[in-house]
């Protein structure tokens, strides 16, 4: 799609506004959506019935589609989660939607990779490097069969929420994630990610939670994820993280769940952690011997710390089932 085509669409919009508010301007978006539909395998045939060429109201009335509220009928949101979709998701086509801000594909059986060769995309959404303000703020492709690495997401600098849990992503987490200023919810659990967590995570953003459990991550726990004092959950179970628990989390007054068991952490548990006012779960088990602190063993905890934390500890030690942020 050339810029000229887009300009034409723009003027077309205004000259025919009264007659064809929906169909004209969105015709590019319409084509993209129809192409998208044709590349998906849809187990329940009714599910995308409204996605068709002459549907009257146009793509803004398609199931799962939300358009710009300022009235120019461009697609800003696609929500196809939990619709029994499979096949290879055509990220390349979606990148042609100029105004897309939210993409939700969770809980399907979609496969494929977030492709490396997206620089040809006409949209600013996916282009790496040169575009400084791509508009995608919300990406949820969790619980699918996606693979490849996450490097193509490093340019999505406006991300607020990134949900990619339960896929087959491998490779390293782009260090650029640590520089995203708006990222608050990051869920990458149950993939095959390696390397360190970006150490800058949270130093610029108001983190609400991170869940990167059940990967193959190494290196230390980033110290700043509660820097702005808003974080509620830090879940890094079952990786191979090393070093000690940063002292900074002992002053994270909002923290409700702190779970780092099944790693290779060492050192001393910051004493203040046990007394945090909102903490419901602190989970260090399986790893306790490595901390070398007899006083954190169960029987001694019951003598030494306040009763609320005793409960906390028992719940965690007794096999708390809320292992993940979405549980
Ligand atoms: C529609 O609105 C969005 C958001 O304001 C803007 O980015 C886009 O350029 C507009 N498109 C047209 C065709 O006016
Ligand atoms: C991105 O968002 C900004 C602010 O909402 C808007 O002005 C701009 O037109 C958008 N760009 C695209 C390509 O939609
Ligand atoms: C991107 O553009 C290059 C050069 O124009 C071309 O060789 C390549 O096949 C294109 N890739 C895609 C995915 O369209
Ligand atoms: C972040 O996650 C929390 C807890 O699940 C939720 O309440 C909040 O709305 C999410 N924020 C965004 C921006 O998605
Ligand atoms: C975890 O890391 C430690 C220290 O780098 C290493 O010795 C150990 O083999 C790793 N364990 C696994 C399961 O990868
Ligand atoms: C903890 O492990 C790191 C390497 O992972 C090591 O450099 C450090 O000396 C260890 N500290 C203690 C107290 O064992």
- How many DSSP helices? 6
Largest sheet: 10 strands, mixed
Q: Average pLDDT, to the nearest integer? A: 76
Named at the architecture level, the CATH assignment is Alpha-Beta Horseshoe
Overall tally of structural domains: 1
The top-level CATH class is Alpha Beta
What does this protein structure show overall?
The protein has six helices and 17 strands. Strand 2 and strand 3 form a beta hairpin. The chain has one domain: Leucine-rich repeat, LRR (right-handed beta-alpha superhelix) (Alpha-Beta Horseshoe). The chain has helices at 3-15, 27-39, 91-94, 288-291, 298-304, 307-317, and strands at 41-42, 65-67, 75-79, 85-88, 102-104, 109-111, 138-140, 161-163, 170-172, 185-187, 192-196, 209-211, 216-219, 233-235, 240-241, 257-259, 281-283. The radius of gyration is 23 Å and the shape is elongated. 16% of the residues lie in helices and 17% in strands. The longest helix has 13 residues, at 3-15. The chain starts with a helix and ends in a 10-residue tail after the last helix. With 327 residues, it is an alpha/beta fold. It has a ten-stranded mixed sheet with strand order 2-3-5-7-8-10-12-14-16-17. Strands 9-11-13-15 form a four-stranded parallel sheet, with no helix packed on it. The chain binds 2-acetamido-2-deoxy-beta-D-glucopyranose (NAG) (6 copies).
Keywords:
327 residues; alpha/beta; Leucine-rich repeat, LRR (right-handed beta-alpha superhelix); 10-stranded mixed sheet; 4-stranded parallel sheet; 6 helices; 17 strands; elongated; disordered N terminus; binds 2-acetamido-2-deoxy-beta-D-glucopyranose; LRR_dom_sf; leucine-rich repeat; At_inactive_RLKs
């Amino acid at each position: 799609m050339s810029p000229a085509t887009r300009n034409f669409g723009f003027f077309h919009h205004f000259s025919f506004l009264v007659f064809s508010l929906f169909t004209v301007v969105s015709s590019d978006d319409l084509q993209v959506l129809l192409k998208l539909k044709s590349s998906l395998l849809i187990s329940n045939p009714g599910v995308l019935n409204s996605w068709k060429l002459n549907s009257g109201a146009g793509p803004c009335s398609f199931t799962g589609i939300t358009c710009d509220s300022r009235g120019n009928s461009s697609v800003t949101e696609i929500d196809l989660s939990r619709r029994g979709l499979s096949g290879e998701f055509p990220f390349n086509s979606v990148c042609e939607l100029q105004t897309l801000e939210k993409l939700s594909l969770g809980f399907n059986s979609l496969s494929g990779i977030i492709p490396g060769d997206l620089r040809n995309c006409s949209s600013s959404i996916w282009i790496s490097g040169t575009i400084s303000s791509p508009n995608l703020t919300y990406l949820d492709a969790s619980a699918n069969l996606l693979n490849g690495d996450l490097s193509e997401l490093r340019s999505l600098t406006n991300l607020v929420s990134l949900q990619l849990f339960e896929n087959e992503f491998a490779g390293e987490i782009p260090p650029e994630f640590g520089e995203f200023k708006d990222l608050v919810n990051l869920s990458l659990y149950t993939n095959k990610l390696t390397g360190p967590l970006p150490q800058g995570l949270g130093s610029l953003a108001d983190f609400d939670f991170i869940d990167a459990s059940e990967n193959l991550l190494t290196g230390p726990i980033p110290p700043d994820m509660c820097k702005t004092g808003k974080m509620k959950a830090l879940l890094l179970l079952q990786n191979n993280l090393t070093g000690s628990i940063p002292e900074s989390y002992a002053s994270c007054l909002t923290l409700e769940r702190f779970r780092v068991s099944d790693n290779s952490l060492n050192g001393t548990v910051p004493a203040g952690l046990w007394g945090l006012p909102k903490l419901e779960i602190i989970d260090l088990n399986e790893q306790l011997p490595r901390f070398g602190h007899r006083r954190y063993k169960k029987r001694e905890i019951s003598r030494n710390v306040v009763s609320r934390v005793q409960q906390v500890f028992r719940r965690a030690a007794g096999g708390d089932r809320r292992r993940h942020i979405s549980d």
